[in-house]
């Protein structure tokens, strides 16, 4: 068994969520990820939403597995020199600072290439070139500007952001693909290149189907949206569609037994056309198989509210897991709405490494989400996140090959701040 990115060294100059998710994935594919952090505080997320006093937060620990941490004040001349040395020996540099921050630090693309023409410089920014390119951006800003918020929620409610971090983690995922693609191209050309992923673009990529609907709207109403069946007119922009699913397979979230007290006693039910007859049988409406109002997908579209009300009467008589079992047995696509608590208790997710329990020297045991991408020849174990500066000396000595005297000089200059000494783990 191997490591897919064995031998790839990543200079991880990222913070918060978008960049760190990208480099965490690279680490899970076996790259040596060296996270550069400001002495003293490090990545701001170490201290955000803390649940254990004086210990790195879950926010940080769940985004920075399998990395090494070096503290470096890159505005200190010695610190800058160390960063330059790291640029020279790394294959990839990843950053998600505010626009212009890296240039202000003296690391323009030209300078980076001068130091290492083979390096891949990968950046997350809020926007690509254009009117907003200088803006700082966080998750929900990207969801709003990438088309997700305007199309999420109910027609008569506010635009909604989604809990899935499509702006941050979604952009990190896109960036990781850009990086491995650039690494592949480098094997052919010998040259590095810049990889840019704008959060607005990543969100829009996830909202591709809504841009499809925007164009379909010019040619008539969106017949699979509930508002069509309700006879409500469409405007000139894609409306929020609640829980309607698209394509030719209308779906809704329906109540299940216990919904009155359990906020997650719901199931997503899809009226997939090929299994319509089975749906009619299971809900006790066998005549709908031949009734011209229900027999074909097109005929059903104006009756979706009525159809789902009838299906819901059936789902409400079952728990979400009973309904799932019955429907799965009939090949009818459905999915129970699982709470985070239920997911955290799912043994099968631990068996695949999608959920992993780790031990941490200052916070104790914690749960994290492991690598969702499974490669048959990549056996990297998920490891805890590093303490701030835990590997500073190790990186200076082993990666950069500096002598004890040189390391002492760097330490005296203040470039690395306090170095961490771990009690034997
Ligand atoms: N040593 C010295 N200085 C350091 C440093 C180090 N190790 N690491 C960072 N800094 C400095 C930067 O050089 C910058 O200084 P400058 O403003 O004087 O040039 C400063 O720290 C702050 O960086 P910045 O990125 O502006 O942080 P912020 O907290 O103000 O903004 C974001 C945070 C996320 C809004 C911003 O980084 C951003 O828009 N990033 C791109 C989009 C993105 O990834 N957003 C999602 C985050 S999940």
From TrEMBL:
GO-annotated biological processes: oxalate catabolic process
Gene Ontology terms for molecular function: formyl-CoA transferase activity
Recorded metabolic or biological pathway in which this protein acts: Metabolic intermediate degradation; oxalate degradation; CO(2) and formate from oxalate: step 1/2
Annotated residues for binding of substrate: 247-249
EC number, UniProt record: 2.8.3.16
Pfam families associated with the record: CoA_transf_3
Keyword Translocase: no
Alphabetically ordered keywords of this record: Transferase
Binding site for CoA: 17-18, 38, 72-75, 96-98, 104, 136-139
Catalytic activity: formyl-CoA + oxalate = oxalyl-CoA + formate
Active site: 168
Key word Transferase present: yes
Record SUPFAM superfamilies: CoA-transferase family III (CaiB/BaiF)
Subunit structure: Homodimer.
Membership in a protein family: Belongs to the CoA-transferase III family. Frc subfamily.
NCBIfam families with a match to the protein in the record: oxalate_frc, PRK05398.1
Function: Involved in the catabolism of oxalate and in the adapatation to low pH via the induction of the oxalate-dependent acid tolerance response (ATR). Catalyzes the transfer of the CoA moiety from formyl-CoA to oxalate.
Protein name: Formyl-CoA:oxalate CoA-transferase
Source organism of this protein record: Starkeya nomas
Taxonomic classification: Bacteria, Pseudomonadati, Pseudomonadota, Alphaproteobacteria, Hyphomicrobiales
């Amino acid at each position: 068994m191997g490591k897919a990115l064995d031998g790839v060294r990543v200079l991880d100059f990222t913070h918060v969520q978008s960049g760190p998710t990208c480099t965490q994935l690279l680490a899970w594919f076996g790259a040596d990820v060296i996270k550069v952090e400001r002495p003293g505080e490090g990545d701001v997320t170490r201290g955000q939403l803390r649940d254990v006093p004086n210990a790195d937060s879950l926010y940080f620990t769940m985004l920075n597995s399998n990395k090494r941490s070096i503290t470096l004040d890159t505005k200190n001349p010695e610190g800058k020199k160390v960063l330059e040395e790291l640029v020279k020996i790394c294959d990839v540099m990843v950053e998600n600072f505010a626009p212009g921050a890296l240039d202000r630090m003296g690391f323009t693309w030209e300078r980076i290439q001068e130091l290492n023409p083979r390096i891949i410089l990968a950046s997350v920014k809020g926007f690509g070139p254009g009117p907003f390119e200088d803006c700082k951006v966080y998750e929900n800003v990207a969801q709003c500007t990438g088309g997700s918020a305007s199309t999420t929620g109910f027609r008569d409610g506010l635009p909604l952001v989604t809990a899935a971090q499509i702006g941050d983690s979604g952009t990190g995922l896109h960036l990781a693909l850009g990086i491995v693609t650039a690494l592949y191209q480098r094997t052919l050309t010998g040259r590095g290149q810049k990889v840019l992923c704008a959060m607005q673009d990543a969100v829009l990529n996830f909202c591709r189907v809504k841009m499809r609907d925007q164009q379909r709207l010019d040619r008539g109403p969106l017949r699979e949206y509930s508002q069509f069946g309700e006879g409500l007119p469409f405007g000139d922009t894609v409306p929020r569609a609640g829980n309607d699913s698209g394509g030719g397979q209308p779906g809704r979230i329906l109540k299940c037994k216990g919904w009155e007290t359990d906020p997650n006693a719901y199931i997503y039910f899809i009226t997939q056309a090929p299994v319509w007859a089975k749906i009619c049988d299971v809900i006790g409406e066998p005549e709908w198989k031949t009734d011209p109002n229900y027999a074909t997908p097109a005929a059903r579209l104006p009756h979706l509210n009525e159809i789902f009300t009838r299906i819901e009467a059936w789902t409400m008589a079952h728990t979400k897991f009973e309904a799932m079992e019955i429907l799965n047995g009939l090949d009818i696509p459905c999915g129970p709405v699982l709470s985070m608590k239920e997911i955290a208790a799912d043994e099968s997710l631990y068996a695949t490494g999608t959920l992993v329990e780790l031990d941490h020297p200052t916070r104790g045991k914690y749960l994290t989400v492991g690598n969702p991408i499974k490669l048959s020849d990549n056996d990297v174990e998920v490891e805890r996140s590093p303490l701030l500066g835990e590997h500073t000396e190790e990186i200076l000595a082993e990666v950069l090959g500096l002598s004890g005297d040189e390391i002492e000089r760097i330490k005296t200059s203040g470039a690395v701040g306090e170095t961490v000494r771990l009690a034997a783990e």
